[in-house]
Amino acid sequence: MKLGLIKVVQDLFPEERLKTSYSILEGVFCNLDGSALSTREVAQIRDRLLAWVGRDKPIQLLGRENGFHVYNVEGQIVRALYPALERPSDVEPFSLIPFSDGFIVDFGDVDKGDGSPLIPPVQLQATYDENHRWLDRVGIEVVADVNAFIRSGRHLELIGIAEALHEKKISRIADMIMAQQRALRVLLIAGPSSSGKSSFLRRLNTQLFVNGFKPVPLSLDNYFVDREQTPRDADGRYDFDVLQALDLPLLQDQISKLVEGDPVEVPIFDFVTGRRLAEHTPLQVGPKEILVIEGIHALNPQLAGDVNRNQLFKIHISALSGLNIDLVNRVPTTEIRLIRRLVRDDRTRGISPEQTLEQWASVRRGEYEFIFRFQEDADVMFNTSMVYELNALRPAAEAALSRIPDDSKFRGTRDRLLNLLTFFDPIDASKVPFNSLIREFIGGSIYFEP
Fold this sequence. Notes:
Elements: H1 2-12, E1 18-24, E2 27-32, H2 39-55, E3 60-65, E4 68-73, E5 76-80, E6 95-99, E7 102-106, H3 122-138, H4 143-151, H5 155-179, E8 186-190, H6 197-210, E9 214-217, H7 248-259, E10 264-270, E11 275-283, E12 289-294, E13 312-318, H8 333-349, H9 353-370, E14 380-383, H10 389-401, H11 411-421, H12 439-442
Parallel strand pairs: 8-12, 8-13, 9-12, 13-14
Antiparallel strand pairs: 1-2, 2-7, 3-4, 4-5, 6-7, 10-11
Helix pairs in contact: 1-2, 4-5, 5-6, 8-9, 8-10, 10-11
């Protein structure tokens, strides 16, 4: 579909350049580089795109060149990072939704997960814009600009400014929490797989301590119902991801009491037996403390029950904006998180690359159902993407992916990711600071390793 979009925009606006900017669930936000699109112009693009699909002229693959697939799209040559369908009529149903200075290509499942309409990604847009402004200030637009830093011997400078940006943002979030300390009682943090949640939380806790505010963690794992009461999925397997796998009435009651400063007896869940132990852990949140809950359901409004929303501070974290290879060939943030997970699983969890890829589809379904649908309700979005991270991850990722054999059903994914990594010049990972979020994946973090 992107090939048709490139052609249509070029036909309508020959002096402009289309930019595919960032993901919004399974959709993509697009705009023109340096120009705003009106609602009428978005409608023109939509109509032309539907006409292109209707003509259904075959898309001709001319070959491969420098990591790109080169296509002839009705006389226009287009280079694409990923392979395209042969016929326009094979594209998924879509609609174009005017948004900000461009539009969202909505593929039909870009909704809250329950059939509700698309929630305008206002927070996501603001986070992307902030990242884009920072990249402009440091002179980076596409991957080649990062490679230029590395080739000119300025990679340490690049690492330093990227890490400083993260520290500044985390400090700012801690200051926001402190500014509302009289009202806030609960900090809720959620993000999809391989977002860097653990490292982020450790660094945020440090900043809160600096401000004289003590975080008090509450683990959702201790609120699982006994195994025989756990809901099952469509295949009859225990589904530990659904909210109903938790003892929600008990959790809500205890959160309410902790918010009021009352002591509670937190249950202890034994994952071996699948039951709660007879013992409990006493917990209380004092006036200079804040309850911290991190987990897949942390942004779900049902979790905290009747606690006043003003007493809650919600943070959504994810790798929200990767660099583009060029204006129209972006690196999906999903690919970044998958590479992070491949490297981490292979290094620390004894999980082979094929096992990680086998689990990925299920992981992604859970993210859509339990996290992304609530992301716009967050008070803050934190972008864990690092401008140099795929350069740092490349050696370890290539080593892991190279162990997937040619006869594996994941050969296509292997080749796709290996090709993507060739666009990133490798960087010496030993220079990455030991408190960096990236260390959660490449190893050597001060937070997780002796």
